[in-house]
Design brief:
This protein is of the alpha+beta class and 186 residues long. The chain has helices at residues 21-31, 34-48, 103-117, 129-132, 139-142, and strands at residues 12-15, 57-63, 66-78, 86-94, 122-126, 145-146, 157-161, 172-176. Strands 1, 2, 3, 4, 5, 6, 7 and 8 form an 8-stranded mixed beta sheet that branches.
Amino acid sequence: MNENATSNMNARIRVATKRDRDDIRDVHLQAFPAAEAEQIADLSVRLLTEASDPQTLNLIAVCHGKVAGHVAFSPVFSNIDKQWTGYILAPLAVRPEYHKAGIGSQLVENGMERLSEQGVNMLFVYGDPKFYQRFGFSAEAAAGFLPPYALQYPFGWQAIVLHAAPTEGHTVQLSCVASLRDPGLW
């Protein structure tokens, strides 16, 4: 693959295991700018072993026998309804040589499908609206759901409803897994 790949590549998406730790760390170190790469790589490894109920979902994309991308979906918790289930997508990374090959989209779509099959109500993301709107994420869906920490870029807070749940009329404060409990990540 070259850096200017523009066609969709069909990657094999699978659940990550602890054996994938070094590859996942390397993907994030390569994908993010130096100023934040170490912090995000450390986060990705912590999420791989995060003990939570429900469990954090880590997926990797494998292309030509190499881990080309990684995404983590970790649970968020509501202060209103203990039956309501939500997740946040973070972080997502693809090795630079696989950019524009559809790997990130495949990871997001596969994770959304798995979470929907589990009956998850909502999926949140704190990221570039231009990228995530293609999957159906919107700021409107996230309205009324307060992130665990103050956001540096509030326009990036988005959500998609996977299975409707009665939360209308309530402002819902979300909390997150231990690995994401760093205000500097938000």
